[in-house]
Every structure is written in structure tokens, then in C-alpha cells.
Amino acid sequence: MKTLPIYDAQQLGELIRSRRRELGLTQTEVAEVANANLRFVSELERGKPTARLENVLRVLATLGIELEARIR
């Protein structure tokens, strides 16, 4: 399992886009499975910093990405 530090919305968006493409999915397919709309997935991949956490977590779960928080 690969662990990547994420420090901002842009990096999270890049990770999501990369994983989606790796899985061969379209933004529409991810949106449908995650019960989100296409605009949300698109904005998330572009690093929009105001995304709702609940929706972000659903997209991450759809793509098999686990979110972990660490105290530094």
C-alpha cells in the first residue's frame, strides 16, 4: 500500500484524478457510484478547496483511497 502526504486540495485532486484514470473510470462513472454530481467530481479533481467533506469521502471510497490523519 502506497502512502502519500497530502497538504492541500490541489494535491488531493491530483491523487483522485490519477487513481480514477488508473482504474479506467470516467468522471461520470465515479460521480454515479459515489452518489455525487459530475460538477462536484470535476471541481474536486481541479483542487477546489471548498468541497464538502462528506462528498469527498464518498469519492475516495469509490476509488479505493483510504484517508488517514496523523498528528505530527
List keywords for this structure.
72 residues, mainly alpha, 4 helices, 56% helix, globular
What does this structure look like?
This protein has 72 residues and is mainly α. The chain has one domain (9-62): lambda repressor-like DNA-binding domains (434 Repressor (Amino-terminal Domain)), CATH 1.10.260.40. Helix content is 56%, strand content 0%. The chain is built from four helices and no strands. It has helices at residues 9-22, 27-34, 38-45, 53-62. The longest helix is centred in the first third of the chain and has 14 residues, at 9-22. The protein is globular. The relative contact order is 0.20. The mean pLDDT is 95.
Task: Give the helix/strand layout.
Elements: H1 9-22, H2 27-34, H3 38-45, H4 53-62
Helix pairs in contact: 2-3, 2-4
Question: Quick gist of this model?
Answer:
This protein has helices at residues 9-22, 27-34, 38-45, 53-62.
**Weakly predicted, low-confidence segments:** none
Number of helices: 4
Query: Into which percentage range does the β-strand content fall?
Result: under 5%
Mean pLDDT: 95
Radius of gyration: 11 Å
Helix content: 55-70%
Total domain units: 1
Shape: globular
| Gross CATH architecture | Orthogonal Bundle
Largest sheet: none
| Oligomeric state | single chain
Order of helices and strands: HHHH
